[in-house]
Amino acid sequence: MAAPVKHVGKNTANGAKCVIVFRQVTDAKGNVVEGDQALVAYPDALPLTEHQDIMRIVESEPAQNSANLYEALNRDTVTNGANALQWLHSNGYLKKVATTDIVLTPTAAHSVPLANVNRIVELQSSGLNEQQIKNMMQDDTNQPPRGHSMINANDVPSSVGEPAMPAPEVLAEAAQPVVEAPAETVVAPVALDPTAQAEAMLEQAKEMIRQAEELKAAAIDLDPSVKPGRGRPKAKA
User: Fold this and answer.
1) How far is Cα of residue 156 from the mean position of the Cα atoms in its chain?
2) How many angstroms from the chain centroid is the CA of residue 112?
3) Angle at 160 between CA 154 and CA 164, to 5 degrees
4) 54 burial class (0-12, 13-18, 19+ CB within 10 angstroms)?
5) This prediction's pTM
6) Tens digit of pLDDT for each residue in 99-119?
7) Whole-angstrom Cα distance, residue 9 to residue 22?
């Protein structure tokens, strides 16, 4: 069985064999600027001599011991003496491809999406152990919801972010409390039966009589002559 070979793969969009020179697009200082894009070269598109040169470097011990092929290419040369990495770049052989369109093929029987490899490398760099990485990379698409967290939240370094993390301003806006207008209170009419209505009317009548007695007593206090006497008043002569 042939030994696995790193940095080789294919473009799933067209099936072409490629070597992954940069797993992600970086700036001159090595900072990732396009994490979802890779720079690859297609060996079969190279002149025969340079094709052999590049594949020799890819299969070399320095390249196989490195996580990034560009490091080995930058330390080696092609037959004409040019820096291998610079030669690929200056002759237009480095092509930008979405990481989701690239699969690594370390052996003829195995393939691994480059996007997954990049994610694993990121998690390893953040300090997660093998089991934690396995849990985070587990595909639950067709599985029932988990009954527990994939990993202990206390074990996740603060520098680890989920894919497609919203921009800071979006998170800030989402964190603002939502003020909802108070709902209009609607009092539903209560249907009383005849007995209840009658009892309510009697209570109202009692209250009216009590108020009338109080007013009557107040009037007499103001003017005792208005106090009604017994019997019918006598007619004047």
Assistant:
1) 16
2) 24
3) 130
4) buried
5) 0.56
6) 999 999 988 888 889 998 888
7) 13
